[in-house]
From TrEMBL:
SUPFAM superfamilies from the UniProt entry: ABC transporter transmembrane region
Name this polypeptide is given: ABC transmembrane type-1 domain-containing protein
Keywords assigned: ATP-binding, Membrane, Nucleotide-binding, Transmembrane, Transmembrane helix
Organism: Arion vulgaris
GO annotation, cellular component aspect: membrane
Gene: ORF66762
Cross-referenced InterPro entries: ABC1_TM_sf (IPR036640), ABC_transporter_C-like (IPR050173), P-loop_NTPase (IPR027417)
Domain of life according to the entry: Eukaryota
Classification via Gene3D superfamilies: ABC transporter type 1, transmembrane domain, P-loop containing nucleotide triphosphate hydrolases
Length: 132
């Protein structure tokens, strides 16, 4: 996409130079110095267009970054990693986690992404959950 855009910018710049030269040639009484100056300025149009496209691309990237920061600033804060809550003395030292017909979604208002999960995780067993 970037190369295609570069080709179009070069083509537009070449057309500006071409029409500038044609316009200068068909206009009666144009001095040679003025003709050279107009073609010289027309040649700089290509670089100006490239700079404009690059600047617009940078602005778009920066705006997306600002939007992302604004979105992150409005997220709800997560719970602290470690808490001072102690487990009761009668709490089992080993156990298992059992899911029966479990369903979940990424956030309220969205469709569930997991449906009817049934599994048992034994004590000391390690599992991995892969998702988005």
């Amino acid at each position: 996409a970037n190369r295609w855009l570069g080709i179009w910018v070069e083509a537009i710049g070449s057309l500006v130079v071409f029409f500038s030269a044609i316009f200068s040639l068909v206009t009666p009484g144009v001095n040679g110095a003025i003709l050279g100056l107009s073609v010289s300025y027309a040649l700089q149009i290509t670089q100006a267009l490239k700079w404009l496209v690059r600047s617009m691309s940078d602005i778009e990237s920066n705006i997306v970054s600002v939007e992302r920061i604004e979105e992150y600033s409005q997220l709800t804060q997560e719970a602290p990693r470690f808490t001072n809550i102690r487990t009761p003395h009668d709490w089992p030292s080993q156990g298992q986690v059992q899911f029966r017909n479990y369903s979940t979604k990424y956030r309220p208002g969205l469709e569930p992404v997991l449906y009817g999960i049934n599994c048992v995780v034994q004590a000391g067993e390690k599992i991995g959950i892969v998702g988005r």
